[in-house]
Amino acid sequence: MTKPSPSARERIVTGAADMISRRGLNATSIRETAKYARAPLGSTYHYFPEGKQQLATEAVRFTGEWTARCLRKELAAGPVVGLQAFLALWRKIVVDSDFRAGCPVLAVSIEEPPADETPTALTAAADVFTTWESLLATSLREHGAEPDQAAQLATLVVAAVEGTVAMCRAKRSTQPLDHITEQLQALILATIKD
Question: Which of 125, 123, 108 shows the shortest CA–CA distance to 25?
Answer without folding.
Answer: 108
